Amino acid sequence: MDFSAPRGMRDFFPEDMVLRNRIFDAWRAAASASGFEQYDACVVESLDLLKRKAGEEVENQVYAFKDKSGRDLALRAEMTPTLARMVAERQGSLQFPLKWFCIAQCFRYERMTKGRKREHYQLNLDIVGEDGVSGEAEVLCAAVSAMRRIGVPDSAYRVRVSSRALLSELLARLGIEEKFHAGAFLALDKKGKMPREDIENLMREEGLGEDACRKAFDLMDISSLDEAAAIAGPDSPAVARLRELFAVLEDCGIRDQFVFDVSVVRGLSYYTGIVFEAFDVKGEFRAIFGGGRYDNLLTTIGGRPTPAVGLGFGDVVVGELLKSLGLADTAARPDLVAVGYMQPEQRAAATRLAASLRSSGRNVDLRLRAQKAKAFFSSASQRATHAVYLGPDDVAAGRARMKDLATREETEVALSCPPT
Predict the structure, then answer these.
(1) Element (H, E) at 8
(2) H or E stretch including 73?
(3) DSSP notation for 297-319
């Protein structure tokens, strides 16, 4: 029998949980520090909901199945459709704007590449009910805070920012009709992932002519927002919105983490405005996190028109990035006191000491049977930060020594008297 996890899935042994918890704790702390409220939802979704959001082809990209009543269901591939469903369900009673976050396990049945598995955990940050760029800035500030809390240096990554609204303006300036814009977006999102000839073929399949394909592809060579603004014109709403966002990011003190990159498109069709993706500066990995504005998604599933912006931040790529930087094992060891004893006669005293330390807020690993001192300290040093070892003399004296396993310093601790 093969004891490994199914292809593309992961097991987390205790040593793996150290890094996972480090990432989750940073996500939760960063989101909470920015005033986001946590929510969660069922991992199984209606397949119809996913089709409304992503089209009929999504069935080939997810783990879809029928339940015993014949309902078409799927394991969630992302949280945004679920969030939209939940908001639409209570749209009349919720207080907007909403600032919600979740840490969700997601599943996607597709070809695996470096940094992509068929199962992953993802931080989702969403603001629903705010149409100003303060929404984009707030989710981006929380994401940068999470990166710092995880331990990723600012110098190791940059967030590339663009706007689908701006790209639409540029395509229109080139004489490309609006009905062809969505197809152009999907094709241009493949830049850097496939040869130019193949991308142009995709645009032709969407109905663009030879000249339009060439012009659309050449837009990807724009190198600055000023250059894009020169083409879009002085009254471009999309350019004004991007400039405003960069100004707010400056006020947040994180402007240096962001660069304009017109080639950021985001393949998901529900994005309507500013979009962004974070990449490591060496270009070794997939996007660390990404997202953007999606003002029409609620109406797509039957809700009332409501502006929204959000991002998804996966655990796989940021974990690989930490490993590549040699920072995956730099987290401080959590406080843990190992309590052991020499003979069965000291078990009661050791148990009472462990109970006392736990009631005072310490984490305690109480050994389950007597051990020799050498074996105890050898195993304690693998996980614990402090250790207390009781022998008959310690119990007789009513006190013992707690050793700091890093500094070797010792402090005296009193032993509880046996109950009368």
Answers:
(1) none
(2) strand 72-75
(3) HHHHTT-----EEEEEEEHHHHH
Tokens of residue 400, six digits: 């013992």
Compute φ and ψ for 241, nearest 5 degrees: -70, -40
Among 3.40.50.800, 1.10.150.20, 3.60.40.10, 3.30.420.270, what is the CATH number of 337-414? Answer: 3.40.50.800
Q: By the 8 A CB rule, do 289 and 143 touch?
A: yes
Q: Which residue has the tokens 């300290």?
A: 377
Total residue count of the chain as it appears in this document: 420
Amino acid 420: pLDDT: 40
What pLDDT digit, counting tens, does each position of 296-348 carry? 888 888 889 999 999 999 999 999 999 999 999 877 788 999 999 999 999 99
The reply to whether omega before 392 is within 30° of 0 (cis) is no
Residue 278 three-state SS: strand
Model confidence at 54, pLDDT cuts 50, 70, 90, reads low
3-class secondary-structure state, position 395:
helix
How many CB atoms are located within 10 Å of the residue 40 CB?
11
Give the domain ranges of the chain.
14-324, 337-414
Helix (H) or strand (E) holding 101: strand 98-107
What integer pLDDT is reported at residue 406 of this predicted model? Answer: 94
Residues 64/47, Cβ–Cβ less than 8 Å? yes
Domain 14-324 coded CATH 3.30.930.10: yes
